[in-house]
């Protein structure tokens, strides 16, 4: 009887530990995605967001596009920001923002990382 209780107790402890670890993993991957997204956004060979936008931490920003601040207020739904970055022409057919998705300037995963970064601003 005591052995069964110990087995159940150990199994429950392991289950709780695994549950805690699975909750911690997304925070680490999101932080990594934010850093990767920043590198892509600041890269002249990839996102090059600084060519048109002022971004905190960026050097020599452009002023063609709006400054990227208060992004959660401007895009309460993160997927709307993703759509804007993927292809701004959907919302404004005269947009001069490059269609990063359709023109394959960035891969889908890279766009996701840029969205994670921009959404922190």
CATH fold title: Cytochrome Bc1 Complex, Chain D, domain 2
Number of helices: 4
CATH architecture field: Orthogonal Bundle
| Unreliable runs | none
The fraction of residues assigned to DSSP E strands is under 5%
How would you explain this protein's 3D organization?
The protein is mainly alpha-helical. The chain has one domain: Cytochrome Bc1 Complex, Chain D, domain 2 (Orthogonal Bundle), CATH 1.10.760.10. Helices cover 54% and strands 0% of the residues. The chain has helices at 2-42, 71-74, 78-86, 108-118. It is elongated, with a radius of gyration of 21 Å. The mean pLDDT is 84.
List the helices and strands and how they pair.
Elements: H1 2-42, H2 71-74, H3 78-86, H4 108-118
Helix pairs in contact: 1-4, 3-4
Provide a compact summary of the structure.
The protein has one domain (2-118): Cytochrome Bc1 Complex, Chain D, domain 2.
């Amino acid at each position: 009887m005591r052995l069964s209780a110990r087995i159940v107790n150990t199994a429950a402890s392991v289950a709780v530990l695994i549950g805690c670890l699975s909750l911690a993993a997304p925070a680490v991957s999101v932080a990594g995605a934010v850093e990767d997204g920043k590198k892509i956004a600041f890269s002249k060979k990839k996102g090059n967001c600084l060519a048109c936008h002022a971004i905190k931490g960026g050097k020599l920003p452009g002023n063609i596009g709006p400054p990227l601040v208060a992004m959660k207020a401007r895009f309460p739904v993160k997927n709307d920001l993703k759509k804007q970055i993927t292809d701004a022409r959907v919302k404004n057919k005269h947009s001069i923002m490059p269609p990063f998705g359709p023109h394959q300037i960035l891969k889908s995963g890279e766009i996701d990382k840029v969205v994670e970064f921009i959404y922190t601003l």
